[in-house]
């Protein structure tokens, strides 16, 4: 049974993944300056719409998705957990490629990452317990919000703060290292995910077929949620592209860390997060190539 399968992932591999995600977050933060946050404070509507889309609308619609499709409990909880994570590390790159508001995208990633300290464990606990089949997993797991917060702080918040500080104090240095570090960190992250899948290939093949369609549907739901909420809020198409992509690109790397750190690498959950990490890059780049053909109105 899918809920009884656990993927192999050593403590050393988990530590390496934490370090890789910290480097990725640091490289993203090199695009941020304190004034970016001040500008959004003066005109916060697009940011607030994006955060509502990511932390309120998407988890609620994910709950509806799993209620309608009734997947195995571990798969359902994996979808809920991914929806509870902040925006993914490649969202800024994809937003730029799509001709969207990169500053908004980077700031959404930053604010969502800080908010994840409280909102990620809250959404996992609330929606996971509300869905009856996954409630038993959460009761057996006893996920600790404080441990999740500590994980997010050391893996995401500190690298983010360090990157903003370095960009503010050493702009010449960050200008030289920004792009190479971003490409290098993302390449290492993708290689790590592929290596982890290869190390669990037999289990992955047995489980993936059941989950692929759900992950594709969930990702389409996430992109549609961002687009719809941004349209209803009346933000510009320039901002709407950023909100759409930020909602549709989730930090599946953080999801994997939580799954292996708190859920023992439960197969259904881990395959959901791993497939998300692959598929959202494919769908995001494809969407960006379509959107980039027309200039967004600001």
Brief descriptors of the model:
Na+/H+ antiporter like fold, 298 residues, globular, 83% helix, mainly alpha
Strands, helices and their partners?
Blueprint (H helix, E strand, L loop, with lengths): L10 H19 L4 H9 L2 H25 L3 H12 L6 H8 L3 H29 L1 H10 L3 H25 L1 H29 L1 H33 L3 H12 L3 H11 L4 H25 L7
Tell me what the structure shows.
With 298 residues, this protein is mainly alpha-helical. The chain has a single domain (2-167, 174-291), classed as Na+/H+ antiporter like fold, CATH 1.20.1530. 83% of the residues lie in helices and 0% in strands. The protein has 13 helices and no strands. It has helices at residues 11-29, 34-42, 45-69, 73-84, 91-98, 102-130, 132-141, 145-169, 171-199, 201-233, 237-248, 252-262, 267-291. The longest helix is centred in the C-terminal third of the chain and has 33 residues, at 201-233. It is globular and about 50 Å long. The chain starts with 10 loop residues before the first helix and ends in a 7-residue tail after the last helix.
What is this structure, in a nutshell?
By secondary structure, this protein is mainly α.
Q: What is the number of domains? A: 1
Q: Can you name the CATH architecture?
A: Up-down Bundle
Largest sheet: none
Low-confidence stretches: none
């Amino acid at each position: 049974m899918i809920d009884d399968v656990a993927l192999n992932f050593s403590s050393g591999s988990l530590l390496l993944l934490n370090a890789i995600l910290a480097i990725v977050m640091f490289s993203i933060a090199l695009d941020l300056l304190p004034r970016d946050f001040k500008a959004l404070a003066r005109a916060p509507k697009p940011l607030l719409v994006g955060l509502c889309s990511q932390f309120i609308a998407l988890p609620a619609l994910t709950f509806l998705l799993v209620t309608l499709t009734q997947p195995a409990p571990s798969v359902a909880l994996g979808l809920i957990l991914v929806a509870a994570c902040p925006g993914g590390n490649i969202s800024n790159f994809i937003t730029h490629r799509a001709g969207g508001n990169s500053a908004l995208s980077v700031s959404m990633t930053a604010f969502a990452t800080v908010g994840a300290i409280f909102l990620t464990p809250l959404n996992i606990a609330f929606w996971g317990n509300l869905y009856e089949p996954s409630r038993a997993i959460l009761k057996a797991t006893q996920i600790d919000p404080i441990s999740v917060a500590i994980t997010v702080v050391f893996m995401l918040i500190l690298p983010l703060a360090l990157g903003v500080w370095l960009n503010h104090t050493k702009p010449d240095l960050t200008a030289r290292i920004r792009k190479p570090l971003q490409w290098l960190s993302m390449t290492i992250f993708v290689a790590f995910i592929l290596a982890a899948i290869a190390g669990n290939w037999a289990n992955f093949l047995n489980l993936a077929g059941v989950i692929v369609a759900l992950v594709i549907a969930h990702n389409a739901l996430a992109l549609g949620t961002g687009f719809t909420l941004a349209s209803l809020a009346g933000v510009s198409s320039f901002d709407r592209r950023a909100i759409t992509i930020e909602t549709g690109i989730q930090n599946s790397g953080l999801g994997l860390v939580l799954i292996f750190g708190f859920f023992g690498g439960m197969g259904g959950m881990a395959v959901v997060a791993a497939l998300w990490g692959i598929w959202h890059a494919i769908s995001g780049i494809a969407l960006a190539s379509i959107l980039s053909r027309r200039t967004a109105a600001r």
